[in-house]
Amino acid sequence: MGLFREARQDIGGLRIAMPDEMITANRLVYKWPEKSIRKFTKAFVPEGYCAVFVNSGQVIGQLGPGQYTIDAQELPVIGVLIDRLFYDNAYRCELIFLRTAETRGLRFGGPFDTIKEPDFNMPVSIRVYGDYSLRVFDGGLLIKSVIGTADQPDNEIITTFIGRQLLNAMGELVSEGILDHTIPVLGIKSQASEITEATMGKLNPVLAENGMQLVRFGDFTINLKEEDEARLKDLSDKVASKRAMIGLASDPNYLQYAQGQVLEGAGEGLAQGGAANQTAFLGMGLGLGGAVNAPFQQGMAGQGMGQPASPPPATAPCPECGEQNREGSKFCHGCGTSLGPPAVACPSCGAANTPNAKFCFDCGTKMKASCRSCNADLLPAAKFCPECGTSTAPAAAPADEEPAGEGER
Asked: What global pTM score does this model have?
């Protein structure tokens, strides 16, 4: 057999073999602790394993399952490795056992990098957990690329390498699928079979360069972080409710949706403000009707005159869900959040007023204080008038003015 000749008899009584408990536990890798191998030593390689001889990180040769006696007389490279400390009776090399049979139940898992859900532009965290089966088909490649010169290699040195490769490959596939809408974020659990199959196709060429093959996945779970899933479900439910209410589920019409949102918000304000808002509400309703009809009238006129289509309107994102809305929209067509400027509370009764209101619509109080000297408007926290410099503090009574009734005593 050249470098290694199958043993027919026990010569010298020297023996190299894996411990039985490691074989029983399906140990992936085991290095014989001695760094020199005596001439005519018997090597026992169990079924499902191979033995690789290494010197200074270089693979010298491999043995399959069986019983062998080391005989290097026929191979010059082994003669060069003769160990002089043993009076030319030993070779300076190491022996590493590697499991070549399929090894099942190897665990992996962890989170992917944060991925943005495209519909709501919301960052979400996705996690995977499971196990896989592995087969080593080239021990020499595995030693060169992964194990190297580790003094006491164990399963972890291999499983850590594969686990990192699995998360990277699977994370890229899931991220691409979410962005192109082939993998739904909320329904990602149902895609487990497709994800694992695609991952094997993507990862096995990489593992083949390292002498390994991913055979199959066992238990496998992929899911969203609990708080991300709850928030995303809440946003989805709001959007579904709004679309069902205005009929967008079958034919999205954002202009009609915006009209419904404005009317809904106006109705809430009417319920809170009472009859004082009725006139404004009716006027807004009439104005909104004209606004809805105007685009259609303009479109018809444009078609009759042969004018080119106008460019799409500018949009701005909703601060709550990230949905793009037309500039000037008062409510988000995705989640219903108000897009208008924040209301200003009346300093007297606390009623909500528009930012530009000068007097409270409910109690008539002036919304902004004015300078007692030049009557200019003052900011709420101003200590001096920005126009004339007069202090905003109440004027003190003159020092020589006597209190009422003081001179009558």
From this structure: 0.56
